[in-house]
Amino acid sequence: MRLERLNYNKIKIFLTLDDLNDRGLTKEDVLKDSLKWHQLFHEMLEEASEEFGVDIHGSVAVEIFSMQAQGMVMIVTMEEQMDEELLEDGFIEMQVTVDGSEDILFEFRDFEDVIQMAKSLNSVQIEEGSLYFYKDKYFYHAADLEGGNIHRVIAILAEYGDSAFTSIHVIQEYGKVLIEANAVKKLVEYFS
Questions:
Q1: Radius of gyration from C-alpha coordinates of the chain
Q2: What's the CA gap between 179 and 181, in Å, rounded?
Q3: Which of 152, 74, 154, 141 is nearest to 107 (CA)?
Q4: How far is it, in rounded angstroms, from Cα 127 to Cα 136?
Q5: Rounded Cα distance, 191 and 184, in Å
Q6: What are the CA-CA distances from residue 9 to residues 46, 62, 67, 97, 100 (Å)?
Q7: Which of 103, 112, 114, 179 has a 20 to 30 A CA-CA distance from 40?
């Protein structure tokens, strides 16, 4: 689990699938709003409170962005509320919004790893994707892959790189586009 403070009342929490599995949870538990999920959420809020010195009480809004096979990102917004009864009960009201994403985003430190990744993806007839450069790292982004290919692609990507914590929107806005479309195909053509 990784915590990041976005501003005075907003915290970003990144949970990998391993983090969820270690706690005996699945993405479905989050979607079903299970008791185990509520316990984990309260633990995460306590950890965020200790790490950032934030007093979390009252109402919080939670936006959950589920990333295919990478985990989920939660944006927790604490709403300022002065209701004394809520403070005494230690009650936290959650408003949860879930957005599922089929996007895959991996980061690579070395360009040679990008080339090897492309060769491996090409060997299983995957040619699409985009390649970006941002903060001294290369980012491979793929969207709308067919269901059967997703797990195979992720296995290959994990062999050469790591799941990216940065969102694709930040990379598209501030990074440099190296190959906009069919990145795998073009990398193999240029470097084989």
A1: 19
A2: 6
A3: 141
A4: 24
A5: 11
A6: 15, 12, 24, 17, 24
A7: 103
